[in-house]
């Protein structure tokens, strides 16, 4: 039976994150890059469910944890996903709107 992460308790989420981390490490040892990426993405989503979406605000800019040099301007929050636009080092905003798990957002950028 499949469960959604939104149905998991905090303890179940942390257990799932540990399992996914182990799977990613095993896949990395076997050289299966795509499986590593899949498990890392699942981990990021599961970690987002351990966070409080209210800690993030629309129209604010946040650092991206996995991509130094890029920031992310939130248009709106939907569940544990922040919808918005990436901004590069030259402060150019990407045209394409995308959704990122809030677990990928770092500190708020003060301007």
How would you describe this structure to a colleague?
The structure is a single chain. With 111 residues, the protein is of the alpha+beta class. Helix 1 runs antiparallel to helix 2 (33-48). The termini are far apart. 17% of the residues are buried. The protein has a 5-stranded antiparallel β-sheet with strand order 4-3-2-1-5. A hairpin with a 2-residue loop joins strand 2 (71-78) and strand 3. It has 2 helices and 5 strands, in the order ααβββββ. The protein is 33% helix and 24% strand. It folds into 2 domains: 5-48, Orthogonal Bundle (Helix Hairpins); 53-108, SH3 type barrels, CATH 2.30.30.340.
Q: How are the secondary structure elements laid out?
A:
Layout: H1 10-30, H2 33-48, E1 61-64, E2 71-78, E3 81-87, E4 98-101, E5 105-108
Antiparallel strand pairs: 1-2, 1-5, 2-3, 3-4
Strand order of the largest sheet: 4-3-2-1-5
| Poorly predicted spans | none
Predict the CATH topology of the largest domain.
SH3 type barrels
Which CATH C-level class of the largest domain is it? Mainly Beta
Mean pLDDT: 93
Helix fraction, binned, reads: 25-40%
Indicate the proportion of strand residues: 15-25%
Total strands: 5
Q: What is the H/E order?
A: HHEEEEE
Q: What's the story with the biggest beta sheet?
A: 5 strands, antiparallel
The radius of gyration computed from the alpha-carbon positions, rounded to a whole number of angstroms, is 15 Å
Total of domains: 2
User: Which CATH-level-2 architecture of the largest domain?
Assistant: Roll
